[in-house]
Amino acid sequence: MFNMLIPMIGILGIFYFIVWRPQQQQVKKLREAVEGLRRGDTVILNSGIVGKIAKVPAKDDPEISVEIADNVTVRVLRAAVGEVRAKNQPVEAKTDNK
């Protein structure tokens, strides 16, 4: 019975280092980027909308203002930010190979 337990522990260890740990690091990096948002930063929302930060209220406020077009500003939750880009950093085009 103990011999069957050793491979399971090995598989769980591999799972931790291949899947779980990199995901935690990615979430931490995004959280730090969202906390450090500044006016003018380009963000990509989880819905796919790309915009620039127009207004960042106090850190405890869950909403930010994002300008998605000229004179079009929307208020979104900080949790809706999926990616933060520095000022003037281009958005990479993603293509699906079907």
UniProtKB/TrEMBL annotation:
<keyword id="KW-0653">Protein transport</keyword>
<dbReference type="GO" id="GO:0015031">
    <property type="term" value="P:protein transport"/>
</dbReference>
<keyword id="KW-0812">Transmembrane</keyword>
<dbReference type="GO" id="GO:0005886">
    <property type="term" value="C:plasma membrane"/>
</dbReference>
<dbReference type="Pfam" id="PF02699">
    <property type="entry name" value="YajC"/>
</dbReference>
<comment type="function">
    <text>The SecYEG-SecDF-YajC-YidC holo-translocon (HTL) protein secretase/insertase is a supercomplex required for protein secretion, insertion of proteins into membranes, and assembly of membrane protein complexes. While the SecYEG complex is essential for assembly of a number of proteins and complexes, the SecDF-YajC-YidC subcomplex facilitates these functions.</text>
</comment>
<keyword id="KW-1133">Transmembrane helix</keyword>
<keyword id="KW-0813">Transport</keyword>
<dbReference type="InterPro" id="IPR003849">
    <property type="entry name" value="Preprotein_translocase_YajC"/>
</dbReference>
<protein>
    <recommendedName>
        <fullName>Sec translocon accessory complex subunit YajC</fullName>
    </recommendedName>
</protein>
<keyword id="KW-1003">Cell membrane</keyword>
<feature type="transmembrane region" description="Helical">
    <location>
        <begin position="6"/>
        <end position="22"/>
    </location>
</feature>
<comment type="similarity">
    <text>Belongs to the YajC family.</text>
</comment>
<keyword id="KW-0811">Translocation</keyword>
<keyword id="KW-0472">Membrane</keyword>
<comment type="subunit">
    <text>Part of the SecDF-YidC-YajC translocase complex. The SecDF-YidC-YajC translocase forms a supercomplex with SecYEG, called the holo-translocon (HTL).</text>
</comment>
